[in-house]
Write a structure and sequence with these properties.
alpha+beta; Four Helix Bundle (Hemerythrin (Met), subunit A); two-stranded antiparallel sheet; 5 helices
């Protein structure tokens, strides 16, 4: 199925790559807007703290890389494990930027057959959380990452930072 944008036709995979690339700079801007000494901030006891959210987004990106790589070896699942902690903000940002480049390379190497290949997300040894195609799981990962980026962006002001532009100017970045 093709998607049309500005008179051009894209496959679902090509459209995903385009969207992922357009979302990436906003992730980095939000990460860099976080006060590095306040990563333990959480607005509610049941909420993840800021550092845990950055680690979750990094882990999601790493899972996406693995899902693409595994298509080459015909492995059909991705094992999900919650991050157990987080490191210094600068190191997590550097890892996210590095992993973004790796993911971009893996996405471009993934053909349409790999994109449409059945896959699943597994927690623990056997619990299947989601069944879909590789492309379907990657779209879910993107939507979930955007959701958590939005969550993280609401932490910035209470942490003492300035909210960056995400889809347009913010009241702070005006």
């Amino acid at each position: 199925m093709a998607t049309q944008a500005l008179g051009q036709e894209f496959s679902n995979r090509e459209f995903f790559i385009q969207r992922w690339e357009r979302e990436y700079p906003a992730f980095v801007r939000v990460f860099k807007a976080l006060p590095a000494d306040r990563l333990d901030y959480r607005p509610h006891p049941r909420s993840r703290c800021a550092g845990e959210l950055v680690a979750l987004l990094l882990s999601t990106l790493q899972g996406c890389i693995q899902l693409c790589k595994d298509q080459k070896s015909l492995y059909d699942g991705i094992h999900w494990q919650e991050p157990s902690g987080f490191g210094p903000l600068a190191e997590m940002i550097a890892a996210y930027e590095r992993d973004h480049d790796t993911f971009a390379s893996e996405l471009r190497a993934l053909d349409d057959a790999g994109w449409h290949h059945g896959a699943w997300l597994i927690r623990g040894k056997e619990e299947i959380l989601l069944k879909d195609t590789v492309g379907g799981l990657l779209w879910i990962a993107l939507f979930d990452a955007v959701h958590h980026r939005g969550q993280l962006s609401t932490y910035i002001r209470p942490m003492g930072g300035s909210v960056p532009s995400i889809y347009g100017p913010s009241a702070d970045a005006g």
